[in-house]
Specification:
CATH architecture of the largest domain: Alpha Horseshoe
Number of domains: 2
Number of strands: 0
Structural class: mainly alpha
CATH superfamily of the largest domain: TRAP transporter T-component
Helix content: over 70%
Oligomer: single chain
CATH class of the largest domain: Mainly Alpha
CATH topology of the largest domain: Serine Threonine Protein Phosphatase 5, Tetratricopeptide repeat
């Protein structure tokens, strides 16, 4: 499938408009436009029913949001949205490990810059030893939660892209602490997806080597209470049900995904991907169990 020509045309037109505004010196208007655009871009992507369109079209938007950051480099909201966009693209749509590593590093850098520009006291948090890191987290408040979350997601994506690097893996405890603190501050951020991340992290390993599957199950259940997400059901089946060899739960979760419609406000893209993964997991269910 070739990238739709109108995407390129719209992007070029948008960049021309923004450059014109900058030349005219309309700084206040540009700042508002930048923030509004970055806030809406991820939401628009999530409504797209064709994942391949997003896969092929998003790199142009990455360049555009880089431009937005350049125009307002200390805006923590713009930086956080840039981090989330890079995290989503690198984590979902990029198969090449080297490229995913580069893009996830950009996400991580934007996440760190967002946190730093939001609160000077959080600027160097990534470099702190674990005990000091947790002490700093304990001083954060609800207003810090969105920026902590963007940073946590970017860290998780970077670790995923560098899963063979023990230096990256060593950062996992900090990511879990971040996510737990976010839940303490505002568990409803991103429709409760902090619970989903913790559900996955707690079910990566069996109990014999440090995994916490029942704790992970509790996070998946709470995430579904906050939002009945198809992708959460897929991850619940893939990570928890398979880990504990519960085929009945596994197939029930996945069949529910296939029965529900993909089209849902703000979730169409993720639901489409969830249905694709549910089909693949069900096809291998009997063989796995």
């Amino acid at each position: 499938m070739q990238k739709l020509n109108w995407i390129s045309a719209v992007l070029k037109n948008g960049i021309v408009i923004l450059l014109t505004l900058w030349i005219m010196g309309c700084a206040t208007y540009v700042n508002r436009t930048t923030e509004r655009f970055s806030n809406n871009l991820s939401a628009a992507m999530m409504k797209q029913p064709d994942p391949e369109t997003i896969r092929q079209g998003t790199p142009a938007y990455l360049i555009l949001i880089d431009t937005m950051v350049e125009s307002d480099p200390k805006n923590p909201k713009t930086l956080a949205n840039a981090s989330r966009l890079y995290s989503t693209y690198a984590g979902v749509f990029v198969d090449d490990n080297e490229r995913a590593g580069r893009l996830s590093l950009r996400a991580k850098e934007y996440g760190e810059q967002s946190l730093c520009n939001h609160s000077e006291s959080l600027c160097e948090i990534a470099k702190l030893p674990f005990d000091e890191f947790e002490n700093a987290l304990n001083k954060t408040t609800e207003k810090d939660a969105p920026f902590l979350y963007a940073y946590a997601v970017s860290q998780a994506t970077w670790i995923q892209a560098n899963e063979n690097d023990w230096n990256a893996i060593a950062e996992l405890p900090k990511v879990k602490s971040l996510l737990n603190r976010i839940i303490d501050l505002d568990e409803k951020i991103d429709d409760g997806n902090a619970h989903v991340y913790l559900g996955v992290l707690d079910t990566l390993l069996p109990p014999s080597v440090g995994g916490k599957p029942e704790q992970g199950k509790a996070h998946f259940d709470r995430a579904l209470e906050l939002q009945d997400s198809l992708m959460t059901r897929v991850l619940y089946a893939k990570h928890y049900a398979r880990l504990v060899y519960n085929q009945e739960l596994h197939d029930e979760l996945l069949n529910t995904v296939l029965e529900k419609p993909a089209k849902q406000n703000g979730m169409t893209l993720i639901n489409t991907l969830a249905k694709q993964q549910a089909e693949q997991l069900l096809e291998s269910s009997d063989e796995y169990f």
